[in-house]
Amino acid sequence: MADVVRRRLRTVVGLTALAELVVFVLVAAWIGLGWTIVATLVTSVLGWVLLASQGRRTLADLRQRARSREAAGRELGNAGLVAVGGLLMVLPGFLGDLIGLLCLLPGTRGLVRGALRRVVLARLPEHLRGPVRVGSTRTAPVDATDAYRPAEPLVIEGEVLRDPDRRP
């Protein structure tokens, strides 16, 4: 299993490097080698600037979620996409810059997140895919005056129900 993953990773990295080289040569033939090098340096600087600004914003969102004790799933995903996007923008290469820019900009980050979600869900076994439906049964009725009692812990009894149409 590990050999297959390593082999696939080497293949992907090799093909990506080859594609970046082909695009670099095509751009150099189109606008000249000097301007191509300048464009590569400019995109790297742009990557640093975007990484700094979006990184600060994402960390502020994470801090806010931590202060309010809310789940920070989307913010953690944004932090990961900002980190990957910044790395791709800083490394030389126009294809990586394009993907990195999609990861760094807030408007297009949702597109990348959706594409990643589809790829991950396609690789999961069917019984691990959502949605999960939860049913609840109450042992005693609750009225509005009993809704919050800080002295006693709140316990909700129930059971997890599987969709009968799905196989386990």
UniProtKB/TrEMBL annotation:
The keyword Cell membrane does not apply. It comes from the Bacteria. The keyword Membrane applies. The chain crosses the membrane at residues 12-31, 37-55, 76-95. It holds the Pfam family FxsA. InterPro entries: FxsA. Keywords: Membrane, Transmembrane, Transmembrane helix. PANTHER family: UPF0716 PROTEIN FXSA (PTHR35335). This is FxsA family protein. It comes from Blastococcus carthaginiensis.
